[in-house]
From TrEMBL:
Keywords: Oxidoreductase. It comes from the Bacteria. Belongs to the short-chain dehydrogenases/reductases (SDR) family. The lineage of its organism: Bacteria, Bacillati, Actinomycetota, Actinomycetes, Kitasatosporales. GO terms for molecular function: oxidoreductase activity. This is SDR family oxidoreductase. Signal peptide: none annotated. CDD domains: SDR_c. Coiled coil: none annotated. PANTHER family: DEHYDROGENASE/REDUCTASE SDR FAMILY MEMBER 7B, DEHYDROGENASE_REDUCTASE SDR FAMILY MEMBER 7B.
Length: 235
């Protein structure tokens, strides 16, 4: 069975994608900081009958990254690495004139530096895989200028660039930066923390964008940046 490592997998998009992959027969290594939420997610995903290993920890911790990939190796080696763990850098989001610099450093460390560290450590397994793949979960704010989204958007723009260069440097892999769409305004805790007073309008569930991610895995287009809504429009 193919093996996926997914960070930020205790809820939201990470859990939704993990469940969809498990339904397709993937074995999974799930990472997140909150032990109880991660264990609940692992039980939910594991109900599909595949092997699911929960590894609690902070992705900025090198020992945690090593543990994630050691678990993947025990399952047969990672085929798909999904960098989904993210922090905002300010909650709620603020204009750049009020952006805490410490918060921006934290966002860069989590959203960019840790993602690269995980890829670096995973490369031997990914290169050995039949169809080694990296997905960096991006944001519309990485490509467009939206008030208050500057700090978070800058971190995701940096992640996009790392993904683009990795795709060039590792032609044997598929490396995709994937934008969930519409300022990531899915019904997730991350969006609620970013914009707590958005008017209470109903928001799409993370499950609604997962088919876009699955289409990439099915069709395996060239490495690059993709938007899940655009992929869904042509399904």
């Amino acid at each position: 069975m193919p093996v996926a490592v997914i960070t930020g997998a205790s809820k939201g998009l990470g859990r939704a994608l993990a469940a969809a992959l498990a339904e397709r027969g993937w074995d999974l290594v799930l990472g997140a900081r909150t032990v109880d939420a991660l264990e609940r997610s692992a039980r939910y995903v594991g109900a599909h009958g595949t092997r699911v290993v929960a590894v609690a920890g902070d992705v900025t911790d090198g020992a945690h990254r090593t543990a994630l990939l050691a678990a993947a190796q025990e399952l047969g080696g990672v085929d798909l690495l999904v960098s989904n763990a993210s922090v905002l850098g300010a909650e709620p989001l603020v204009r750049l004139d009020a952006q805490p610099l410490a918060g921006l450093r934290t966002a860069l460390e989590t959203n960019v530096v840790a993602a690269l560290g995980l890829v670096q450590e995973a490369l031997p397994q990914l290169r050995a895989a039949e169809a080694g793949t990296v997905i960096a979960v991006s944001s519309e704010a990485a490509a467009e200028a939206y008030e208050t989204w500057g700090g978070y958007g800058a971190s995701k723009a940096a992640l996009d660039q790392l993904a683009a260069v990795l795709g060039v440097e590792e032609p044997g892999l598929r490396v995709w930066a994937v934008e969930p769409g519409d300022l990531d305004s899915m019904d997730t805790d991350l969006y609620a923390a970013a914009v707590p007073d958005d008017g209470g309008e109903p928001r799409p569930s993370p499950d609604s964008v997962v088919p876009g991610f699955l289409r990439l895995l099915d069709e395996r287009p060239m490495s690059g940046r993709y938007a899940a809504p655009a992929l869904l429009e042509t399904v």
